[in-house]
Design goal:
Number of strands: 8
Largest sheet: 8 strands, parallel, barrel
Strand content: 5-15%
Helix content: 40-55%
Strand order of the largest sheet: 1-2-3-4-5-6-7-8
Number of domains: 2
Radius of gyration: 20 Å
CATH architecture of the largest domain: Alpha-Beta Barrel
Order of helices and strands: HHEHEHHEHEHEHHEHEEHH
CATH superfamily of the largest domain: Phosphoenolpyruvate-binding domains
C-alpha cells in the first residue's frame, strides 16, 4: 500500500509519523515562516513543516540563529499555522528558552503551543537539563522533536559549521544521545550534518523517526530550508542541498520586467485600469 497515495488527505499526527517509520515510508519535511509558503507546502503534501529559528538567516539576514526570540517564533508560527490544514507543524524553541531549567522550558513550550496552535516543539542537544525538560513536556502532552549532530545554537562552542560525528568519540556520543532522547520521549530526531553511516546506525537502532539534513539517505525522512532548495539564496551552496528551482533568477527577471514596463508606461494598460 502506498501511504502518500492512499492517505494524503489525512492530518499528520505523531502516530502517523511513527507508522511511516514502521512501514519504511519516507517522511517529507521543509521549513516555512509565513502563511503563503506554508499553504503551498501543505497543499504539496509535505508531512512536517518546521518553523525554524533559521528565520534569523532567511528573514532577518543574520549570520547565526542565536538572536531569535520566543516572540518571533510565536509570530511566525502563528502565520504558518493559519493556512496549514494537513501538515504537522513544529516550532523551534529559540536559544536560552529551554536550556536553563526544565520548568522554564515547559512553560515556554506551553506558551508556543497555546498561542500558535502548532503541533510540537523542537530543541537542540542532549544535556541532563534538556532530558529532564523533554521528560516533563512528554508527561504533560507536549510533543518534542530532538536535534543532534550539528546544532546551530551551539555555533560558538563548535566554532564552525563542519560535519559532526566524524571522529569515533563524538560519533558514539551522538549515538548515545539519540538513545537518551528516545528514552526521554521525543517523537523524532533531526540529524544534521553527520556521516551517513552514523545516521544509518542511529536510524536502525531507535524506534522514533530520524529526519536528516546533510546526513545521507538512510534517515527516515529529510528536511531542507525552503529558500535553499528553491534556489532563492545564491550565496549558500552546501553539498547537501539539491536545488529544485532557480527562483532567484526567476523572480529577478519578473521584477525587472515589471520595472521596465512601468518605466515605459506599458503598465498598467487599458485592460488593467478602471
Amino acid at each position: 500500500m502506498n501511504y502518500i497515495k492512499d492517505t494524503s488527505s489525512k492530518i499528520i499526527t505523531v502516530e502517523i509519523l511513527k507508522t511511516l517509520k514502521q512501514q519504511q515510508e519516507k517522511i517529507c519535511c521543509i521549513t516555512a515562516y509565513d502563511a503563503l509558503f506554508a499553504k503551498i507546502f501543505d497543499d504539496a503534501g509535505i508531512d512536517i513543516i518546521l518553523v525554524g529559528d533559521s528565520l534569523a538567516n532567511v528573514f532577518q539576514g543574520k549570520e547565526t540563529t542565536l538572536s531569535v526570540t520566543l516572540a518571533e517564533i510565536i509570530y511566525h508560527t502563528k502565520a504558518v499555522k493559519s493556512t496549514v490544514r494537513r501538515s504537522f507543524v513544529v516550532a523551534d524553541m529559540p536559544f536560552m528558552t529551554y536550556q536553563v531549567n526544565s520548568e522554564k522550558a515547559v512553560r515556554n513550550a506551553g506558551k508556543i503551543l497555546k498561542e500558535t496552535g502548532c503541533n510540537a516543539v523542537k530543541i537542540e542537544g542532549c544535556t541532563k537539563k534538556i532530558i529532564e525538560a523533554v521528560e516533563n513536556m512528554n508527561e504533560i502532552g507536549i510533543p518534542v522533536m530532538g536535534h543532534l549532530g550539528l546544532t546551530p545554537q551551539s555555533i560558538n562552542k563548535f566554532g564552525n559549521y563542519k560535519a559532526r560525528g566524524t571522529e569515533k568519540i563524538e560519533a558514539q556520543k551522538i549515538l548515545d544521545d539519540a538513545h537518551s532522547l528516545e528514552k526521554a520521549g521525543v517523537f523524532a530526531i533531526v540529524l544534521e550534518k553527520i556521516p551517513s553511516h552514523l545516521a544509518k546506525e542511529i536510524t536502525e537502532n531507535i524506534s522514533v523517526p530520524t529526519i536528516g539534513i546533510g546526513a545521507g539517505k538512510f534517515c527516515d525522512g529529510q528536511i531542507l530550508v525552503y529558500s535553499d532548495m528553491l534556489g532563492m539564496n545564491i550565496d549558500f551552496n552546501p553539498r547537501f542541498v539539491r536545488k529544485y528551482a532557480d527562483l532567484y533568477n526567476t523572480v529577478k527577471e519578473a521584477v525587472t520586467n515589471y520595472s521596465n514596463d512601468i518605466k515605459k508606461s506599458d503598465f498598467p494598460n487599458e485592460n488593467e485600469s478602471y
